[in-house]
UniProtKB/TrEMBL annotation:
Listed cofactors: Mg(2+)
Signal peptide interval: none
Catalysed conversion reaction: ATP-independent breakage of single-stranded DNA, followed by passage and rejoining
Compositional bias per record (Basic and acidic residues), positions renumbered to this chain: 442-455
Keywords: DNA-binding, Isomerase, Magnesium, Metal-binding, Topoisomerase
Full protein name: DNA topoisomerase 3
The Toprim domain, residue ranges: 3-136
Classification lineage: Bacteria, Bacillati, Bacillota, Bacilli, Bacillales
Highest rank taxon of the organism: Bacteria
PROSITE patterns: TOPO_IA_1, TOPO_IA_2, TOPRIM
Length: 726
């Protein structure tokens, strides 16, 4: 009997599949059973070849050799993981293997991982596809009962490969052109550059903003109600003319307030929709300060290791109708503290409302919304971050079993000296889903009983002064929103572009946005102050140097639309790539013709110990570092890092400065202590929140903070030396 070879994306998933299918005989990089062999990648095992693969002239970075436009892009085995590739190749090409089952992540990138391995391993055997949204035992068993023909996913692979090739042609040519032209590490990309442009446009709006003073007129009456004057035509409560405001206050002096209208209206507020990845990243950043990358990393653990949630890289906030039958099992799985009471109530309510609230087949594409699995969670094995995210997902799932909250909103209008006043109040009638959401309880603002025609004496009038405020700076949560709906944040409004962006789902994908934000940090194009994001001098100059269309969100949106057409079979990959080559040629031409100069304005007086050129001081995501200005050198050192250790005086986060034995913890309040003293104090203290081991682990993480994410383009850029960007 011929065996089936199953290719998973990662070892953890491969081990789970092997266990479920009874493949218990362990090999070196695979498990084998009676009729199956399970092996795995380590993410990508194969990638596009470096530019120098296509000719000696590309080994050195020279502007005159650009653009690089090979007729086709060749695949190579990634050196660091070549041992596992050869294991996989051997398994897939065994004579007793008659069929290959792709069990990589069910999405565009997962398809690319598998197909590139199959192509480089020269596998020509029939292919089946496992397509599942969670890796619980039940999901794996059910998935293998419903395997798909691999040919159904040929277009998905074509779109995935088209994306990777387009990023190579445009990203690498644009990056090499900018870097060689200006002798500085400058990278551009179809998602990264428009995201940076959105941040820069907001910064420009803030800097050019001029506050305008205004007044509001408040009138308090007998019984405690507080009314505010408003303009009956515009509805605006602000008065921008000070003289007019003072005259208005004088006009109503000594007059009575007559109630002209009391209108009460019931308001029903349903539970918020289930989480997709972007919404959960926003929520986690707002509540806990987690970066988009941190949230995605913890979710991957919840999905792969703990089997507690469904596939995280989803852009849907709804479920498909076939999942309704699993609600009972999912409720049983989450019937643990602190959810037992809520689960009991949800079970009593049944699935009728939940089905209406959560299910919409038309709004589910490859993957449904993030929900808990049918497998009881190992909460004791989760770390704090994973637990918090899991609780958010469970609470949102449970909330959708409950009816809408009901409140009564009352709007009271009044008249005084022919001027209009109003006040509003709200009273909760039924909490509905809110009864289980402590942090989302509706705030009541009760009014005293007021009746139409009633006249009230004025106790006090007051003019409150205010100023118009500039738009808020972006933080990671609001930047994710801007990437999802970029048309709202563009300076120029264009109906066609807005429609394109809406249809494409914004710029980037739910799976890549976290990496894009991290790339902006690691390239020193943006920096963080508190929670707010700022564009660096390097970032501003880069936007002056890149071709104009690369800054527009419309470009990447159009790309994503065309990639989706490839998935649907409505466009050929070859046509898309031909256009990308033309565009790469255009980008290089524009960079060559540009006369704008780039200058380092962050030079220090310290020289590089390796090449002697002056170092640049830059702000990494979590601290300051000094890097060599020479892109060929790549020297860098950390000089200050914000840690999680707290100052013993003011309790603010301490900064770790210096190198080696001379390292010092310092605080903005002036407190300073040597690292050795700090560790000794912590050792003696009963508070063991920060240990020597934790400090050292934190420092190791800091040293990795500027690494690229594991994506095809990032790997290529890293090989070009851009993991040492200035």
């Amino acid at each position: 009997m011929r065996k089936k070879a199953i290719l998973a994306e990662k070892p953890s998933v491969g081990r789970d599949i092997a266990r479920v299918l009874g493949a218990n005989q362990k090999g070196n990089g695979f498990f084998e059973g009676k009729d199956v062999i399970v092996t795995w990648g380590l993410g990508h095992l194969v990638t596009h070849a470096d530019p120098e693969h296509y000719g000696e002239q590309y080994k050195t970075w020279r502007l005159e050799e650009l653009p690089m436009l090979p007729k086709r892009l060749d695949l190579v085995v990634i050196k660091q993981t070549s041992k596992q590739f050869h294991t996989v190749k051997k398994v897939l090409n065994r004579q007793d293997v008659g069929e290959v089952i792709i069990a990589t992540d069910a999405g565009r990138e997962g398809e690319l991982v598998a197909r590139w391995i199959l192509a480089k391993a020269h596998v020509k055997k029939p292919i089946k596809r496992l397509w599942i949204s969670s890796v619980t035992d039940k999901a794996i068993k059910d998935g293998f009962k419903k395997l798909k023909d691999g040919r159904q996913y040929e277009n998905l692979f074509a779109a995935a490969e088209a994306r990777a090739e387009a990023d190579w042609y445009v990203g690498i040519n644009g990056t090499r052109a900018l870097t060689t032209k200006h002798n500085a590490q400058l990278s551009c990309g179809r998602v990264q550059t428009p995201t940076l442009a959105i941040l820069a446009a907001r910064e420009k709006a803030i800097q050019s903003f001029k506050p305008v003073p205004y007044h509001t007129l408040q009138v308090s009456v007998d019984g405690g109600a507080m009314f505010r004057w408003y303009n009956q035509k515009s509805g605006d409560e602000r008065i921008f003319d000070e003289a007019e405001a003072k005259a208005l206050k004088e006009k109503i002096k000594g007059k009575a307030v007559a109630i002209t209208s009391v209108k009460a209206k019931k308001k029903f507020t349903p539970a918020p929709h289930l989480y997709d990845l972007t919404e959960l990243q926003r929520e986690a950043n707002k509540r806990y300060g987690y970066s988009a990358k941190e949230t995605l990393g913890a979710l991957q653990k919840l999905y792969e290791q703990h089997k507690a949630v469904t596939y995280p890289r989803t852009d849907s906030r709804f479920l498909s109708s076939d999942l309704v039958d699993t609600f009972k099992e999912r409720l049983k799985a989450i019937d643990v503290q602190p959810f037992r009471k809520t689960v009991l109530e949800a079970s009593k309510l049944g699935t009728q409302h939940a089905k209406k609230q959560m299910v919409n087949d038309a709004k589910v594409s490859d993957h449904h919304a993030l929900i808990p699995t049918e497998q009881a969670p190992p909460i004791s094995a989760m770390n704090d971050k994973e637990t918090k995210l899991y609780y958010l997902i469970v609470r949102r799932f449970l909330a959708n079993f409950f009816p809408a909250s009901e409140s009564e909103q009352t709007v009271v209008e009044a008249e005084i000296a022919n001027e209009t006043l109003r006040t509003k109040g709200e009273r909760m009638i039924s909490l509905g889903w809110r009864q289980n959401e402590d942090e989302d309880q509706a705030k009541e603002s009760k009014l005293p009983k007021l009746t139409e025609g009633e006249k009230l004496s004025v106790n006090h009038t007051d003019l409150k002064r205010g100023e118009t405020t500039p738009p808020a700076r972006f933080n990671e949560a609001t930047l994710l929103t801007a990437m999802e709906k970029p048309a709202q944040f563009m300076e120029e409004k264009d109906a066609t572009i807005s429609k394109t962006l809406a249809e494409a789902g914004g710029i980037g994908t739910v799976a890549t946005r976290a990496d894009i934000i991290e790339k902006l940090f690691s390239s020193f194009l943006i920096e963080k102050k508190g929670k707010d994001l700022f564009v660096t001098s390097k970032g501003k100059q880069l936007l002056d140097l890149v071709p104009e269309e690369l800054k527009s969100p419309a470009l990447t949106a159009e790309w994503e639309q065309r990639l989706e057409k490839i998935v649907q079979g409505k466009e050929q990959k070859s046509a898309f790539i031909a256009d990308m080559k033309k565009y790469a040629h255009s980008v290089v031409g524009q960079v060559k013709a540009d006369t704008t100069k780039f200058r380092h304005d962050n030079k220090t007086g310290e020289k590089c110990p390796e090449c002697g050129k002056f170092l640049l001081e830059v702000n990494g995501k979590k601290g300051k570092m000094r890097v060599c200005q020479d892109r060929e050198c790549g020297y860098r050192k950390n000089i200050a890092m914000t840690t999680n250790a707290r100052c013993p005086k003011c309790k603010k986060k301490l900064e770790l400065r210096g190198q080696g034995d001379a390292q010092v913890f310092a605080c903005v309040c002036g407190h300073r202590e040597k690292k050795a003293q700090f560790e000794e104090r912590r050792k003696q203290s009963k508070n063991k929140n920060v240990s020597k081991r934790e400090v050292n682990n934190y420092m190791k993480k800091q040293n990795k903070q500027d690494d690229f994410a594991n994506s095809a383009l990032a790997d290529q850029l890293a090989k070009l030396g851009l993991n040492k960007e200035k």
